[in-house]
Amino acid sequence: TFCFPDRAPLPRNMIENSMFEEEPDVVDLAKDPRIHPLESDEIEYEPRSSRLLVRGLGEHDLDEDEEDYESSARLLGMSFMNRSSSLRNSASSYGRSSDGSCALPSVRTLCLGAFVMGIIVSVVMVIYFLPKCTFAKGGCHKENQTMEQVYPIATDGRVFPWAGVRLPSSVTPLHYELVLHPNLITMNFSGFVQMTITVNQDTNKIVLHSSGLKIEGAAITLAARNHLVQVLEYPTHNQIAVLVPETLVKGQNCVLMINYTASLSDSYSGFYKSSYKTKTGETRWLAATQFEPVAARTAFPCFDEPDFKATFLIKINREKHHKALSNMPKNVSTPIENGLVQDEFCVSVKMSTYLVAFIVGELQNISKDANGTLVSVYAVPEKQDQIQYALEATVKLLEFYEKYFKINYPLQKLDLVAVPDFQAGAMENWGLITFTETTLLYDNETSSLLDKQIVTIVIAHELAHQWFGNLVTMKWWNDLWLNEGFATFMEYTSIAKTFPDLQASEDDDKFLYTRLKAMAKDSLNSSHPISAKVETSEQVEEMFDSISYEKGASLLLMLKTLLSEDVFQKGTIDYLKTYSYGNTKSDDLWESMNKIKDKKLDVKELMKTWTHQKGCPLVTVTNKGKQIQLRQERYLRSFSSGSSTSDTRQGAHYYLDPFCMSLWILIEKKFVRISTFYSQLDTIEVADEVVWIKFNLNMNGYYIVDYGEDGWAKLINLLKTNHTILSEKDRAGLINNIFALASLGRVTLKQALDLVQYLVTENCTAPVVEALSQLDSIIKMVEKRELLNLAKAMKDFIYSILQRGLKLHLFTEEISPKEITGINALLGLMNIYSVQVCFVPFLQLDSTVLRTFLFGSLPTDLMKTVFSVGALTSDGWKFLLDMYTRASSATEKMKILEALASTYDVRKLIWLMQESLQENSIKTQDLPYIIITASKNLGPHLCAWNFVQENWEKLVQKFHLGSFTIQNIITKTTSHFSTRNRLREVQSFFDSLKDKGSQLRIVQEAIETIQLNIQWMDRNLGTLQEWLRNRTGLS
């Protein structure tokens, strides 16, 4: 039984009121976070709380703290003079006498003044005639004299011999032998790692990564002799330095051995603990890993960068009743002391540290052979009956990838494991892919068709990584898109060939929504190039966003359409075969494409304009008789008094954009091929005068099109009279583009609203879902300004144009995945309104689905929406909470939890969030879903935002600063704020965090979004009210 406090009135600070706001503070959005990679000749400084030791006179100023100067001076054998000391002269001032006349200075004063002036003149002359370098920061040096760096301080007070965030390249690991013993009672683990290392440059140190590990001892083997070595630790960079007794010489190999202990992590990264309950209510524990991007260092000392590939021999000491898994097949199991068993796994292929994985716990599996590879799916014993579909899908997809890439999967086995506590969604560890339960398990009774689609997509994505990311890996995280963009692209390509009935291919709506999502983020000044400079852990974490995933996939689709499917596939195969077991950068992919295609097009020159610049193009089309004039600029939603679309900080963005002008366009009913568009301005001649024109067929191109006032008028008329002449993706694209242009002020909101009225005759899903996405964003801003009558008028309008399609699809015997997506989007937007105007009219329908609904069995595809409606009542909420505690299916529990979080009762919502944060009856991994769901509703949205502020440190401790989860929490809780008071509140909160959040790019995005919302409301609120008033009689 769960008790709640007595009902209390909603606090006034939970309601947003913008009637008496002050003018906004000036905010400069042009300032991106400073990202300066540390070059080899640069010096890196520590926070003010750290002390610096100096070796040699560096070229950079020291910290102004006098203690730092003093310690530095003592090391150099210099005398120290206090900079704060000053001359204490008894100055004789010139004053007035009592009668008001000026008193003359004494002779003594005149002499003293002359003496001081003489000293000053002498000093000036000395400075003038000395060499200019004398007083430079570095002083005068011989030409061959090198400058020494400023080094940080290790934890024991000694000098740490490396200042860079990135590791030095003086040594490279060749092989790791790792022995681990996780204790699932004490929740600690002990480890021993033995690394075979080759020396690339003469050095007297080995610098590598370690984080949160207690180093018990270390030794190095040189010339067959073991030497104990000292280990210095520098936690700020997660680095340790091993000081070797003699200089390591280039070409030499050595063996480094380290013993250590640590605790299993309480978060979801590194080597962490996870729990689940048995059917009898008993809690069981297991240990699992999540190392991407920078957490392998928390499980064993290592060279934790993608370019340091090596082989691994892993041994796990475990209890007899546990099962251990790792990347490679098990080689042998041996009983050892204390009743433990040691599982030794085969030596791995050459791979990066972030792909290493191991799991220890009670797991059960089913297996199947796929072309010589043993495929197994694991889950906790209570969910053994939910893994069959994943096994079948994996085998089918694995066979497709082997044929498509013409490279067999290189390992003997492939394990897929559903981990009870897992935040990443899924992780492509080579040979041991880990998943959250909702993305791998499928329950035939409670899982929906959309659940099956999600499971299949995620498996397809992770299997693609076995080639893109594992076999061939990016050199550094700046090119993460080579992993994630390709995996995202291939998930759609593979499903089109293997599971066409799931409607999740590149030709279906889901990939379209992916492209539109990426362009929305990319339109912000806070966006980043797809290949961006990153160095710190937080910067690396932030690369896991829709730019790396969705934009990366979108660019690959654009390139494939340009080159042809055959050329693209052959270029991909060449890339994988050329760089197998190696590391690459973006240019390597383009070079492989250049080998295959004709010589007229330089793919490398073409694509660098897309990967090295942020944003997407805006192409303006002007039609004059037989001429079509084109202008290209960056599509930028800038916060300003005007509607500028150029990035003033970096100059004009000219995109060499052959795709947008290299394929077919639609002129009236004719498909016409036009020449490639490389410049900012161009003119196309056509045979006949043009009535209307549609660019970017099927939205395959990554750009926005503005047709001008006359062009839009013609297209709006076309949609109202004969919309099927355009494909459904083209219709969705027009909706997206016109609302995007309305946000710039390039078209009016009235034009955008006039266009979507054609939806009254629309039967397809893509245009409906896109229109709902655009209108929902407006409704959320209006509601959170407490303009509830206006919000209701908008919902009335939406229902009036979409009710025909809803009635047509809601209660049919078979509903396709696309139709389910559209129905859920509409009912989710309408929420409580759905009960009044959507469900009641259907109670009279005679359909099989309706009858099962009335007798208590919900159609699984609509379960989440119906649960959300039921949770709006107190009795319904309590019923669902009880249902949640009894449910065994992870997908069913998630649907119920999202419904519970949809409540407008803030006391219930606060209880949910606290219960999840403390990991009582609700897992902490589900807390982000609760916060994000609550953020959608008026009242609860401020409750969620307040919760984030009050529990920020706990959130970043659990989910890590910069992670995708933290990014999502920030954007979802703030994205619909549209008042200056909220803007100041958000800015003030993140400014107060300093290095605990204020530096994140996602914080800039959140602030920029609020500013754009304010601008949108200032510009369009009156238009919206007038338009709805004229249409519905809104008062």
Q: How would you sum up this structure, described in words?
A:
The chain is α+β, with helices and mostly antiparallel strands and 1035 residues long. Among the domains are: 152-362, Sandwich (Immunoglobulin-like), CATH 2.60.40.1730; 364-487 and 496-502 and 513-614, Neutral Protease Domain 2 (Neutral Protease, domain 2, Orthogonal Bundle). 39% of the residues lie in helices and 18% in strands. The strands form 9 sheets. It has an 8-stranded mixed β-sheet with strand order 7-6-10-4-3-13-16-15, with no helix packed on it. The chain has a 5-stranded mixed β-sheet with strand order 18-19-20-22-21, covered by helices on one side. Strand 19, helix 3 and strand 20 form a beta-alpha-beta unit. The longest helix has 32 residues, at 1001-1032. The protein is globular, with a radius of gyration of 32 Å. 47% of the residues are buried. Mean pLDDT is 81; it is low at 1-104, 130-147, 641-664 and 832-856. It is found in: Cell membrane. Belongs to the peptidase M1 family. Residues 692-1011 form the ERAP1-like C-terminal domain. This is Leucyl-cystinyl aminopeptidase. The active site is at residue 462.
Sum this structure up briefly.
The protein has 1035 residues and is α+β, with helices and mostly antiparallel strands. Helices cover 39% and strands 18% of the residues.
